[in-house]
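re: ur question from yesterday

yeah so i grabbed the chain u mentioned. its 120 aa long if i counted rite. heres the sequnce exactly as i have it in my notes:
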Amino acid sequence: MTYYESYAVVLGVAIAGSLLVAVAFGAGKLIAPNRPLPEKLTTYECGIDPVGEGWAQTQIRYYIYAFLFVIFDVESVFLFPWARIFERLGYQGVWEMVLFIGILAVGLLYAWKKGVLKWV
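ran it thru and got these structure tokens back, copy pasting raw so excuse formatting
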């Protein structure tokens, strides 16, 4: 197989994927029933008619909770490969993980001291 033939495989897979998506959307458009009644075209929130304006402020603490969750969740994923090869790492691997968990603990302590974790 030459260099350019390997790109032909990638191009073939991209074309096949595009065709699959096009066929799926086309079949959905042909098969799905279409009865646009006025009741179906109105807006709603959780099954009830909307009341008031569509603009609402969201408090920043929700984003902070989500951001902290993502940080600690992604960093905790690093514990699984480490646990898998724990015996081969020896004491150096243990101390590196102690340092890693210590940094996580300092970050969590900092967020706690700043009052970020209070749900008030």
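noticed a couple things. Helices lie at 3-31, 60-77, 79-84, 86-113. also Residues 3-31 form the longest helix (29 residues).
anyway ttyl
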